[in-house]
Amino acid sequence: MLKYEEIAEDIKNRIESGEYRPNDQLPLEKEMCEKYGVSRITIKKAMDKLVMRGLVVKRRGAGTFVKDIDDKEVSHISTSYQFEGFSKTFSDKTIISKIVEFKVINAEGEIAEKLKISEDEFVYYIVRARYADKVPYVMEYTYMPIDLIPGVKFDTLKGSIYEYIENKLNLKIKSAHRTIRASLPTAIEQEYLEINENFPILEVEQTAYLDTGQAFEYSKSRHRSDKFEFKSISIK
């Protein structure tokens, strides 16, 4: 991670922890240069990154201020940029993962294309229903290359796969490209999500990447529409 990215990450963490509150003015450039031991150019790049994330706003002649957004929005921004899974998103609830299917298959067609691997390579195919405080939220259909993410077992799937990747394999999850669309549930989704055939589903199609740029996951998460919200901040 580059120095300006480290500084931006540190300030973001301070905003999320409440050290910097909504509408608070951040320290002036000169103070930040002294605090972090860097040049003004580095501080400017860090501030620009925070502006792009929608966390701060620059006011001409006044300085840089924490944007007035609520905790849920800050949490969503954090999720978007740090990449958190279901278990961490609902860390205040009791998480249960029901393993519907778990097998090893060849990466054919779209799977190989999304993961940037050849069709003769093997991937895990994982289908899980995820519950928070016994309430069904989502069905996940996940493909991961075995060579890149070795050692996944049933016990791994009962918890957080992302925690296994970062804490056990010591790999760094960096980003995800997502497409969100509306749909209707399949028969198996009606069963596990406890909904009827006309209940709307929100599907999140995702390709996720490590900090090396390698795709480690291609998935489709099928959410109950009453348990899923997408929030976004647009910056001009």
From TrEMBL:
Q: Name one GO biological process term.
A: negative regulation of DNA-templated transcription
User: Keywords, A to Z?
Assistant: DNA-binding, Repressor, Transcription, Transcription regulation
Which InterPro entries does the UniProt record give?
Answer: Bact_HTH_transcr_reg (IPR050679), Chorismate_lyase_/UTRA_dom_sf (IPR028978), Tscrpt_reg_HTH_GntR (IPR000524), UTRA (IPR011663), WH-like_DNA-bd_sf (IPR036388), WH_DNA-bd_sf (IPR036390)
Domain HTH gntR-type: where? 1-69
A single GO molecular-function term is:
DNA binding
Show the PANTHER family listed in the entry. Answer: HTH-TYPE TRANSCRIPTIONAL REGULATOR GMUR, MANNOSYL-D-GLYCERATE TRANSPORT/METABOLISM SYSTEM REPRESSOR MNGR-RELATED
Q: Protein name, please?
A: GntR family transcriptional regulator
Q: What is the lineage of its organism?
A: Bacteria, Bacillati, Bacillota, Clostridia, Eubacteriales
